Amino acid sequence: MQSLAILLLAGLASAAVSPYGQCGGVNYSGETTCQSGWSCQYQNDYYSQCLVSTSSTTTTLATTTKSTTTSKATSTSSVSKTTTSASSTTSGTSVGTSTEFVGIEGLNFTINGEPGYFAGSNSYWIGFLTNNDDVDLVLDHMNEAGQRILRIWGFNDVNTVPSSGTVYYQLLKDGVATINTGSDGLQRLDYVVASAEKRNIKLIINFVNNWSDYGGMAAYVTAFGGSQTTWYTNEDAQAAYRTYIKTVIARYSDSSAIFAWELANEPRCNGCDVSTLYNWIKSTSAYIKSLDSEHLVCIGDEGFGLNVQSDGSYPFTYGEGSNFTMNLAIDDIDFGTFHLYPSSWGTTNDWGNLWITAHGAACVAAGKPCLFEEYGVTSDHCAVEAPWQTTALHTKGISADLYWQLGDTLSTGQTSDDGNTIYYGTDDYTCLVTDHIAAIG
Ligand SMILES: *[C@@H]1O[C@H](CO)[C@@H](O)[C@H](O)[C@H]1NC(C)=O
Ligand SMILES: *[C@@H]1O[C@H](CO)[C@@H](O)[C@H](O)[C@H]1NC(C)=O
Ligand SMILES: *[C@@H]1O[C@H](CO)[C@@H](O)[C@H](O)[C@H]1NC(C)=O
Ligand SMILES: *[C@@H]1O[C@H](CO)[C@@H](O)[C@H](O)[C@H]1NC(C)=O
């Protein structure tokens, strides 16, 4: 399949490369000349791309910020984004007390009004801890290291009430959804948001899991019927999901600690037409913007279904019901997300670099930044993941990366070890956190 694709490309490669197309890179054998007005610019060893020749590349992209230093912009129209010139963004607000919302400028995220590349991590468990000091400790360590973004689980669905002391956010039972706003419920998430606010950590909060960990779509299916693939169109399941979204957003819509609202963790619809996920993403993102037009919104997908730089391997295909490019074009989706797990996908670790550059190119073409949202291996963390970080940092269109997953030592001992965990204070932490952040500069 791969060599056939290359032969076909070679046969067709007589015209100049279109805007944003590939024009060079390791083993690239196609046309290297760009259309008039565009030039072939090096992105990394694997990828050179046709970009506008003039130095105005970045300024021709819309400069969009989500907020000003005051809390919420007055909404006088149905337009969900506030477009301003870069000069209206205040500078010098990089101290930890800024209440400015996270935004986007061109292909960069902005934190405290400063555009750049940001590093962070994932912690599915932090909102389920019952000791405030543990939450503070973890976020203190993140802040000290300069990790600015933390993606956390904003869901914890159960079908039966767990034993006392076990945190859960929503009970789904016999067709009824009951949100737990108690001290063993969303109040635990409240604490994470409050602690993050004080430490200038920005949180990505998602609303449901594709997988059955912490309930997920399977928990909805148990309560409302259907299947995982019909979950996206099941009216009762979607009504409960939306009520849950509305409840969570209402609690933190004024908080500068929210980086983005995320539709789901790794939504898939195996064997479905790509329109199923597309329609669900479009209507859900519009719903979220109708509740809160100031924060960013993203999907939380693995990045599957992409024809840019595709080598035909499984993740590039559409079998999981996802079309990355089509979904990213949805107006209310502010930035792209993608994950990387070669050992689960039957690819090599080196292939990860192609996966990263392919998404960077797709995001450049979409005019939206990409977040390299999860990546991990179970051994040789530094040797495998540090090169991915370097590729991401030097790939245009990628503006942040979050390794999976954050590890630390709490009052109860070490946090969960799934083999991918990078524990605070270890050599792997020095490599993937300290050294990476130093390289970002
Ligand atoms: C380039 O091609 C060579 C020879 O086929 C191969 O060994 C190498 O892995 C390729 N490099 C990439 C980045 O695909
Ligand atoms: C985005 O940030 C990078 C630094 O990471 C900087 O070189 C570039 O100029 C920024 N672009 C915009 C549009 O701010
Ligand atoms: C997640 O998605 C895949 C693909 O549709 C599916 O096979 C799997 O069962 C899903 N997980 C759950 C818990 O439903
Ligand atoms: C994916 O979306 C892109 C952009 O809309 C489109 O060009 C392409 O044909 C789609 N591919 C599939 C298989 O859906």
UniProtKB/TrEMBL annotation:
InterPro entries: CBD, CBD_sf, GH, Glyco_hydro_5, MAN-like. Its main location: secreted. Belongs to the glycosyl hydrolase 5 (cellulase A) family. Its EC number is 3.2.1.78. Residues 15-51 form the CBM1 domain. It is found in: Secreted. Pfam families: CBM_1 (PF00734), GH5_mannosidase (PF26410). It catalyses: Random hydrolysis of (1->4)-beta-D-mannosidic linkages in mannans, galactomannans and glucomannans. GO terms for cellular component: extracellular region. It comes from Penicillium cosmopolitanum. Residues 1-15 form the signal peptide. Transmembrane segments: none annotated. Keywords: Carbohydrate metabolism, Glycosidase, Hydrolase, Secreted, Signal. The keyword Nucleotide-binding does not apply. GO terms for molecular function: cellulose binding; mannan endo-1,4-beta-mannosidase activity. SMART domains: fCBD. One of its GO terms (biological process) is mannan catabolic process. This is mannan endo-1,4-beta-mannosidase. Residues 72-95 are annotated as: Disordered.
